[in-house]
Amino acid sequence: MLAQKQLITDIHQDAEWQYLVGETLIGERMIVQALAKIVRDKSLPSDLLALLEEQLDEEAYHLNEYSRVLGSKSIQGSGYDLDLHHFVDSLPNNTLKLYALQGLLEGISLGALKHRIDHWQDASSFELDKEVYEDEKKHVSLSFDYFDQLIHQEGQFKLDSFNNITLQVKKIFNKAFNADTISRVIKKMTGVAVNAKKIESNTAMHEFQKLSRQEIIENRDKFLGHYYKNA
């Protein structure tokens, strides 16, 4: 397995791939749990509910397939999924929950997937990553045609409400994916001590972070643009 650009140069590339795919698996598990709660709400527009149930099935498929690809390899995450699940669960309505999941989390996932598609073509996850990338792009826009009905049911939310969610999700991910946390997770996973400053200064890591920000902003803006177009 050969990565064109390695993010964590103190470990073998196989271990970096294991870490990256493991964090994707953890994100898939979290969104399955969160969506499973949302689809229990039968007050949602029936067509939207059917689409969310379809998304849930696809996310569960992703989870199972990444579990298969990783096999018996150790999965050590930063814990972002627990913090994010608790935060999403605390949101008071479906509109804001869907924003957190479809408008933000999918964008974060797309950044990680795009990085692997661009730089891990020899990895055993390559074909799956491409398939999941297309699914997640679709999931971002899943609720767009139903924003008018959600606004009728739950009211229209000011931009400040969405911006506050963006800020809280950013805090969760900044805590989970800073160099110190990454080095601790890698040490737990591999036993190898990783220099956090080398992660921070790695040009490839900077490029990965830039790519992730671009995906997050692009998909957040799509979500909000369609929401306020229906307001």
Q: Helix and strand layout, with pairings?
A:
Blueprint: H1 13-38, H2 46-70, H3 80-90, H4 94-119, H5 126-140, H6 147-154, H7 159-176, H8 179-190, H9 196-201, H10 203-229
Helix pairs in contact: 1-2, 1-3, 1-4, 2-5, 3-7, 4-5, 4-7, 4-10
Describe this structure in words.
This protein has helices at residues 13-38, 46-70, 80-90, 94-119, 126-140, 147-154, 159-176, 179-190, 196-201, 203-229. It is mainly α. α1 runs antiparallel to α2 and α1 (13-38) packs antiparallel against α4 (94-119). The model has no long low-confidence stretch (mean pLDDT 94).
List SSEs in N-to-C order: HHHHHHHHHH
Low-confidence stretches: none
Distance between the termini: 49 Å
Query: Which percent band covers the strand fraction?
Result: under 5%
Helix percentage range: over 70%
How many DSSP E strands?
A: 0
User: How many structural domains?
Assistant: 1
Structural class: mainly alpha
Largest sheet: none
How many alpha or pi helices? 10
Tell me what the CATH architecture is.
Up-down Bundle
Average pLDDT across residues?
94
CA gyration radius, whole angstroms: 18 Å
CATH C-level class:
Mainly Alpha
